[in-house]
Amino acid sequence: MYDFLITGAGPAGLAAAITAAELGRSVIVIEKGKVAGPEPRGESMPQHELFDKLIHPGFLQEISGFTSTSRRFHSSADKKNTLIKIKEPYYFFNWRDLIDPLYEKAAAAGVEFIFGAEVTAVKTAASAGDDDGTATGVYYTKNGKTKELEARAILGCGGRSCPIAAHYGIDTKAAACPTVKYRGRMNTPLPTWFTDLPGEPDLQFFAVLPNSFESVAGFPPAFAYIFPLGDSCIEAGLMLRLSQFEKINNISMPTDRQVMSAWDEAKTSLSGFADFFIDTSTEYEKLTSIQNRRFIENNIMPGGGAVLIGDAVGMVDANGSAGLYYAMSQAVGWSEMLSEAMNTNSEIWSRENCEDYLSRQSKWKFYRYIKRSFKLISFFERIMFRTFGTDKKLNFIWPLISAILKSAS
Ligand SMILES: Cc1cc2nc3c(=O)[nH]c(=O)nc-3n(C[C@H](O)[C@H](O)[C@H](O)COP(=O)(O)OP(=O)(O)OC[C@H]3O[C@@H](n4cnc5c(N)ncnc54)[C@H](O)[C@@H]3O)c2cc1C
């Protein structure tokens, strides 16, 4: 019987594990990959005290090879563009440079890890068929064998396909926007239009209206983005924007193959964007998803015992797909609250306690920000992709779009 059993050694799971272990709790993490955070995801964020506390002061600056303080948004067909200055510089880094120190810190604090083990279901105190009993553990498979482990608190930090959420029938895919993640090396100089741009021409976002691709009929709205990271290196992607999905006519959810066809078309013919791929060697290219379509507020599972954290509930800044800080902050907050309850009270999942946790969570500053961010992005995408969702209309009202973007940044 552990105090904490954490599903998933991503940024949220690792942050929760470090915090709980440093508060004197016994912690075990089950990760399906062979290492912590097996698949690269977000590789940029602004400085927050949280990282100084979790690892050591100055950590983010140490691992970062590139910073950015501006973004440029391009209208459809790249007819207009707007430079947005952001308040805090964004630090870019390599995923492993973030994950490995988090893992090392957790291991040094006494956290136990089981790698190559996939959590498949939740064990509850309820009798068979009754799903509302308190979660007391998980079932997982390793080397073809099913095993189980018990804990006083189960943290569902399994990201976009969290098995804890799935066990309770929560569709985390409803929060997901398919996204292609790409890294490459340019063998030609940066496009001249890009280097000629006034201001600091760092990150570039290209609006892709509904139905923009010839190779895939009815493709939903999206943003294609390019981050030229120096040393001829680029990070890029195509991120579907689905907050208005049900309300825009004549679009449908593309299959994985269709997303990749649209991506190939973007690389060869999306105005402005394609200039970065003329002679670029691919280093990483994979279809994944960013959780920025919905936000699941009730994250304590029925009956208590388990709570969903990070991407599992859509803790991503829907405005800019920044999820690392929010996922880790939420994880730290829950580890602290539950550790405190374990010190004082054996009934940590009483109705009264659960109400108190949710009430405290709802007051966290970043939590309130995330909720607002989802509302704002939905409004913005309604204007951009629905109300003015044609090339002509969008370019006509671009000054309004620019004003909204500036006020939101
Ligand atoms: C392309 C892309 C770009 C992004 N860019 C940024 C950015 O620039 N800045 C930013 O702040 N955020 C960014 N994000 C978002 C950020 O990466 C996520 O919000 C963050 O990784 C969430 O952390 P998490 O721990 O909740 O989930 P994850 O990082 O998804 O970690 C989940 C972990 O759970 C494990 N797992 C899953 N299922 C099981 C199972 N059944 N059993 C055991 N283990 C399991 C996984 O292997 C994984 O290690 C980006 C995301 C993507 C996809």
Automatic annotation (TrEMBL):
Upper classification of the organism: Bacteria, Pseudomonadati, Spirochaetota, Spirochaetia, Spirochaetales
Occurrences of domain FAD-binding (ranges): 3-342
KW Oxidoreductase (keyword) present: yes
Annotated coiled-coil segments of the chain: none
Name this protein carries in UniProt: FAD-dependent monooxygenase
UniProt entry keywords in alphabetical sequence: Monooxygenase, Oxidoreductase
Keyword check for Oxidoreductase: yes
Source taxon at top rank: Bacteria
Organism: Candidatus Thalassospirochaeta sargassi
GO molecular function, one term: monooxygenase activity
